[in-house]
Structures are given as structure tokens and as C-alpha cells.
Amino acid sequence: MKALISVTITAVLYEAIARSGWFAAALVPTLPTVARTLWTMLADGTMAGHAINTLWRVFSGLGLAALTGLVLGFLMARYRPVERFFLPLVSALMPIPSLAWAPVFILWFGLGNTATVLVVFYAASFPMVINTWTGARAVNPLWLRAAGAMGAGGAAMFWKVVVPGASPFIITGLRLAFQRAWIAVVGAEMLAASAFGLGWVIFDAKEFLNADIMLASLAVIGLIGFVFERLVFGSLERGTVLRWGMVRTAKA
Amino acid sequence: MIEIRNVTLEYATTNGKVLAVEDASFAAAQSEFVCLVGPSGCGKTTLLNMIAGFFAPTQGEIRIGGRPVNGQGLDRGIVFQDFAQLFPWRTALGNVAFGLEMKGVGKAERERVALEQLRLVKLEKFADAYPHHLSGGMQQRVAIARALAYNPSVLLMDEPFAALDALTRDEMQRLLAEVWRETRKTVVYVTHNVAEAVYLADRVIVMTPHPGRIKAVVPVRLPRPRDSLSVEFLEHQKELLRHLTQKEEER
Q1: Do B110 and B171 contact (CB within 8 A), yes or no?
Q2: Which of B69, B74, B81, B87 to mutate to test binding with chain A, by most A CBs within 10 Å of its CB?
Q3: Looking at this predicted complex, what is its ipTM?
Q4: Rounded Cα–Cα distance for residues A114 and A248 (Å)
Q5: Rounded to whole angstroms, how far apart are CA atoms A218 and A202?
Q6: Which of A114, B46, B162, B196 suits a disulfide with A109, CB 3.0-4.6 Å?
Q7: Neighbour tally for A107: CB within 10 Å
């Protein structure tokens, strides 16, 4: 409810500015114009096409990052030499913005999906590695002892104790990774995508002064990000670590 | 049957070597309830952890059923003090079934056995509850059921009720005495609570710190269920306290 109020006030302010005549209408389109453009793009399927391309890229990159992050994170937590080898690399590479790699990837792999997916992968990998590594080390040693006393070892210990024990960290890692991936994909598409994608649409619309298309695409980017964050990752958390009492809901 | 023969555990710290346990020997007969009593630092938990197989003694030998202890094993069940020992991602039933799952027992069978164990600790109604919905006392009962579910011959308990309030603790002691009577496990129970030891044990082993040594062995031959207000009960408590407070003459 409070969210609705803040959104409404912001929208009214924007509309007032758009109608004030201070700026050219093509540059600051009114909200109804943006809505109409959005509707047209949704109706003829172009927006869905762009969104599907973007989602495909984001989930390819995120999937690769999750896999790499989980494997590397668990190995780093388990084996000291692996930790010693990869930790300096992670620390050195993590501060580099993923978008800074885009020109390099374009040079190596050309414009298109490969470069975009790699940028997403780069952005999403670090939260996965760091969180898995931390989560595995934060597993309560009492669980390991109890499980060991009950005959668990090797694979059973890993899958039935370490993985669920580390899950609060892993789920948070996945959430952070998605956010970073979603931010990265739009940027990467502006530089590296050649015909499709929400980021590409915005960049392309700039050439034709189509501010309404740009704003409509931004709205879709925000909405998809919001839906995934709240619905997908929110329910993943509610169904697991929150249900198990491993994390708690904030007090009212 | 547990035999502990001349067990010593020494470990190195930055201030030199520390004798956590020095030359401890005792035996527990089949179905006997033995309590290890002593102040913190007397090595009672260390001794229990060696029986559990978490680490090996520096010297001496521990045998269970004639076989030397070498690491952890399904012949021993263990209950810790910390409620957090349960797996939060498993229901009460799932926790109790864990050991059977590791043994490769089928799902239907292990759930049947687990439910039976929960009935033993009077928690069958909470089979589907997650640990965080259970009180501390209930969580410890689940932990006891979990340690018994795969039918070990020995039950090792490390101050399982120390973190509970006094009323719940009394209730849990009664329940444990009942569970022990029904299952006839050999129990080694660590506590710093003298009354608890007299209430539960067939034999109390008194330990003193620096270095951790066995000071005295006091048999408790009172009929069960025991009345903690009877004269004989209090006499036993006094005897244990005397051993615990007395300075060692030879030192």
C-alpha cells in the first residue's frame, strides 16, 4: 500500500514535468504515450521477443555462474590448496566491473550471445563463489559430528548435511547473483547484442529519439527483475530456509 | 560392555602440553548406566568424545564389546548438550530416520522405526514438526530418539539436559530413566550435576581437573524410581560432593 503511494506520487511528478513544456515532447514523453507504446510492443510480440532473448542470456550466464560458483565454493571450503589457489584470483577479479570486460569479450568472440553471456557469467559468479565458500565453512560442526556418528561420510555427508547446512548462504548468493546478472545483461546487450534484447532496444531507440520505447523497455526490465526477485527467489527462500527456521522473518 | 584401559589424552597448546585425561580406567557392564561427574576441565567430555571415536587417546585403549574403538561407529549413539544438534532442514521424523537412511534401510521401514522411537520419547504427535517449532526439551527428546533409532548398543550423552530449565530437566530425567529401562542400553552420561548423577546412575565416576583424573567410583544401589528427597539419596549426593571438593592429599 505504501509502495503504491510512493509510486503514484513519483508518476504524478514525472507527468507534471512531461506536460510542463520545458522539454521537447519526444524526449520526455508523457506516461500515456509510454503506456501506448508499451501496449503496442506487447501486443505485436516484439517486447516478448526482446524479453525472451534477454532472459535466455541471463539464465545461461546465471546457470553457468551458479554451477561454477557452487563447485568452486565447495572445493575451496573443503580443500586448503584449492582455497589458497583461487582466493587471490577471486579477490583480484571481483572488483573489476563485468561491463569492463565487454569490449574484451567482443574482441575475442565477436558481437552476439557469447560475449553477452560471458559478461553475465562474470557478474554472477562472484556472489555464488563467495557465498558457497562461506556457507560451507559456516555449517554447524555439531551437525557434522552427529551425522558422522550415524555413519554418514563422503557423498552422503556432502549432499545430506553440508549442502542443506549451507543453503541459507547459497540461496542468498543466488539472489545476489541474479541481481548482478540482470543489471549486467542489459548493459552487455547495449554493447554486444546485435538485434534483440531489452538492453539493445534501449540503445537502438536512442538513434531514433524514441524516448517512449526506451522508457517502455525500462519498465519491462524493472518489472521482470522485480517478479524474479520477489516471486522466484522469495518463494525459494520461503519454501526452504525460512520454513526450516534457519533464517527468520523480520519482526513487525 | 565398554572397557577403558589406562587412557591418557595429551594435547599441545601454545603454553606447552596439557593433560586433558590422565590414566583413566573403568568398565561399564552391558546395560549399565554410568555417569561421569566433575567440574569443567576435568576431562569428562574429552573422555566421552574418545569413546565416541571423535579422536583417539594418546595412550591406552578403549574397547566396546571386545573390539577396539577406531573412529565413529554405528554401535554408539550420541546426544549432545546443544539443541542445535538436530538438522533444521529435517522434520523430527526425518532426523530420527537419518541413521537408518545411512544404513541403507528402505523408506517405509525406517519411517516405521523412527515413529516407534518418537513414541518412546512421547513425541509421535510431532513427527512432522521441524526442530525450530519444538521446545528445547522436545528437541533433546528427538535427539535421544535419533541416537537410539539405528539400535546402537551404547548410548553416549554429553550433558543433554544442562541447558534446560529445572522443571523440564526433572521431567527429562524421569523420561530417560524410563527409556533406559525399556531399551536396556549401556549408557555413559556426562554431567556436572551431582543430583542428576545419583538419580540416573548405577555407578558414578567422579573426575577432578588439572590433570583430568578419575578420583573415585561410587556405586548407587538405590531402587528405582528414585526419590530425590530420601535420606539415602541425599547421602549419596553428599558423598559425591565430598569427593569433588576434597583436596587431593598426595599433591
Answers
A1: no
A2: B87
A3: 0.89
A4: 40
A5: 8
A6: A114
A7: 9
Cell of residue A81, nine digits: 590448496
Binned at pLDDT 50, 70 and 90, residue B248 comes out as low
Take residue A196 and report the three cell numbers written for it: 534483440
SS3 B90: coil
Residue contact A149–B87, C-beta within 8 A: no
The residue assigned the cell 577471486 is A90
pTM score, whole prediction: 0.87
Using CA atoms, how far apart are residues B81 and B84, in angstroms rounded to an integer?
9
CB spacing of A244 vs B132 below 8 angstroms: yes
Q: Is residue A32 included in any domain, yes or no?
A: yes
Is residue A34 assigned to a domain? yes
Long-range contacts of the stretch B216-221 (C-beta < 8 A, 24+):
B216/B243, B217/B26, B218/B243
Which amino acid, one-letter code, is at B43?
G
Q: Smallest CA–CA separation between A234 and chain B, in Å? A: 18
Q: What pLDDT band is residue B249 in, cutting at 50, 70 and 90?
A: low
Strand B59-64 versus strand B203-208 pairing type: unpaired
CATH number, position A81: 1.10.3720.10
> Range of A47's domain?
28-239
A226 inside domain: yes
**Cell 578420583 found at:** B215
- Domain spans of chain B? 2-75+154-245, 88-151
Give how far B83 is from chain A: nearest CA, Å: 10
- What's the topology of domain B2-75+154-245? Rossmann fold (3.40.50)
Contact B124, B115 (CB under 8 A): yes
Residue keyed to cell 548410548: B155
CB-neighbour burial class of residue A124 (10 A; exposed 0-12, middle 13-18, buried 19+): buried
> H-type helices in A79-210, by residue range?
80-93, 102-109, 113-137, 141-149, 154-157, 163-192, 198-207
Q: How many domains does chain A have?
A: 1
Q: Does B75 touch chain A (CB under 8 A)?
A: no
Q: What is the pLDDT of residues A135-161, one digit of tens each?
A: 999 999 999 999 999 999 899 999 999
Contact B129, B90 (CB under 8 A): no
